[in-house]
Batch of 3 targets.
Target 1
Amino acid sequence: MGSAFASAVPHVCDATHRQISTAMTPEQRRRSRNTGIALAIFVIAVLVWTYVRGGAILIN
């Protein structure tokens, strides 16, 4: 009979039920960083655009 409690570390398995590593490769880390930078630039651009448009509306 199996244990009623799951282990504290989640296990990720492939289609053949072999455990695979969840560690990020350097390429995944680079892509995540680049995606984060792109999202931050987008958010800052939207905030600046909103501030500029809001200022234009208040002036008119």
Target 2
Amino acid sequence: MKIVFLLIIIFSSISISANDKNLYQKAYEIESISTLFAIPLYEQSLSSSNSKNLQKAAVSRLFYLYKKHNKLIEALLLGSKYSKIIPSKERSSVWSAIAEIYRPVKYDLLSSAYVLAVRTNHENYPELLNFMKSAYEPKLNDFIFVVLYKRKQFETLQLLLKEDRSISTSPLYAGMIAIKLDSDGGKSFLESLDAETDRDVSFHSDLFYLLGQYYRSLGDHRFSARYFRMSGSFNWNERAKLESAKSLVLSGNFSEACSTFDFKPSPNEEVGQTFYLICNKKDKSMLKEIKPSFKVLGSKEGGDFFQKVNQALEKWDL
């Protein structure tokens, strides 16, 4: 394979710190076991390495894996940041997939929205807000919200939604941001929604989902699990199952999460696949091999669940 020869050239022709080299090699080894769980290690390798050649190799692998696992916004952002590394043909293939998802929004409109979204912050957000108002396309707004969320522009999202609630047809984005930035603000937002009783099942599913997120932010994981399960009785049952199971794990009840729910393979999503490997497949050998990925995921913002996974693996002598 060309990639193998590339690795040989990189590691034999340049001086790379042992830690950087080991991290990349570990990611490459795990990729042969689980392409999904190789991603966190490649991400860490990219962010921590000072070697341009190693960064180039990590970017190439990440872009390929993002596409493989349908992480299209991550691939889009990576391709924009490293446009000299990722060929334009490869970036175009991501845009084609995104345009298909957000039909009937035209490609030109999506592209213009993306250009604005990647440069918008809490100081210059009015330009993006005016663009969203003039376009008046709910699916386009969803695309913008996801790009901003992936960029961790939470304050910007809050400002956009505060200025004009009509740009979102669901309470989900505004609620998630309110809870993430300020639990008191999240509580006030949820109280305002609770009065809106005459709504469809998706609205009620989102409301109970947000209540689950709110109680999780307070550390009340048992109550959180209860609300997540209630959200699934209205809609989005798979989402409710995963979040309820996560809350049970966070409350220290991994065995209860496994006995309560049945988990199918979830090849594009780390939490669901983790539950499948631990609760259903029970493949201790594989879990031991991908343990470095769990550690990286546990060190990230919001990595509490994977910290609990690591603790469970330690308890099981893995």
Target 3
Amino acid sequence: MKRNLSLLFFFISFSFYAQNDTLSIRTKPTISEVFVKTNNVIYVGIKNRIYINVPYPETLTASSPGLTIEDNKFYIFPNISSEQTLFLSFKTKEGTFVTEKHVFKVKSIPVLLSMINGNNCSKCVVEIKKNELKDALISLKFDDVALDIDFKVTSYSIYFEGNKQLNITVQGDRISDEVFERINKLNVGSHIFITEIRFSYSFNEMTICKVTPIKIVLIE
């Protein structure tokens, strides 16, 4: 089947346009099952996995800008637009061929929020107590609940208000003992800045444009 799908991929354009001469394009109801795990949204800059189920997979041809097939799995790198269309042509259980149209919404990658103990906001300051910063966890998430990707913070830089020259680089995703000792000497109302957050992620191919810093003010 892998060989068949590969051959079909190389002849996508030919198959699609040849059948388009004789077949109408179905939109609803559709015979195939097509979905993505992000609520029918695909993202620019991400290799979006498209799940496709048809009666006879060996007869399937597909066409869409940025479409690739790897190990019998379908992916789309979408263009910058508001939506993108995927065309499928395949054999039905009745033995006839149909061509279907599936439309996905297209979005840009949202801002990547950095958090401390699960708290942050991109345009304000996180209020936090000193004792809550001991071994505090620094993590990342997209500002879009539909885009669920695991990130692992590998290092970060931290500095304190009025002393930007003392920029400490920390390996890992926790407030280190050394950093906490310095924090413990600060006065209530002092500001702390966590920047240059570096990370790894579970996605094979993705472009991250921006990571927000963490701005903290000590309240106790």
